[in-house]
Amino acid sequence: MFYQIEGYIHYWPGTPYAGKSADKPMQDNSGISATALIWEFFSQY
Known about the structure:
alpha+beta
């Protein structure tokens, strides 16, 4: 499975941080949690 978020900078989706990096806003509005997705995958094994 592959996830790509258009216009997203190198940032961990699902992190409740809001700020700026290189003048780009870093507020997570992706609607996904990278941590939950990784756990969903690895918990199968």
